[in-house]
Amino acid sequence: MRRLALLVPVLALLAVAGCGSSSGGGGGGTVAGPPGKKLFVENGCGSCHQLSAADGQGSFGPNLDALKPSAAQVEAALRQGPGAMPSFEGRLSDADIATLADYVQTSAGA
Ligand code: HEC
């Protein structure tokens, strides 16, 4: 029984770390890899889109591995928030939008 008692708080901690991180900076939220990947993960793109390179497994929005959008296409989506997708204009800086758009273009289908 001792093992179980240890495991429960660990799982609880993982769950908190998993969804609590927005772009606030500070504790936790270390995503290994390029900055674009970090942005993809931290902004929850992967909860709606599949993008294998960033472990995105969502199926609410189009599969980005299959769509292979250009950076310009990603940037337009981020700014406009097409359909059911939220707009990230104002939530992300221009530099972040460019980094993210570039990352999706180069990593889609990888
Ligand atoms: C709440 C779910 C949701 C989130 C979060 C989300 N998207 Fe989307 N996204 C969608 C949906 C739904 C569409 C399809 C919209 C449509 O065309 O009707 C879409 C479309 C797109 C497209 C395709 C645009 C095109 O030209 O066809 C790209 C690229 C994209 N999203 C990238 C991203 C990125 C990058 C992020 C993270 C910053 C993100 N999305 C976050 C739901 C989401």
TrEMBL record:
Q: Where is the Cytochrome c domain?
A: 31-108
Question: Is the keyword Heme in the record?
Answer: yes
User: Which GO molecular function, any one, fits this protein according to its record?
Assistant: heme binding
Q: Which UniProt keywords apply?
A: Electron transport, Heme, Iron, Metal-binding, Transport
Cited InterPro entries? Cyt_c-like_dom (IPR009056), Cyt_c-like_dom_sf (IPR036909), Cyt_C_IC (IPR008168)
Q: Does the keyword S-adenosyl-L-methionine apply?
A: no
The protein's matches in SUPFAM superfamilies, at most eight in alphabetical order, are given as: Cytochrome c
**What's the protein name?**
Unannotated protein
Annotated source species: freshwater metagenome
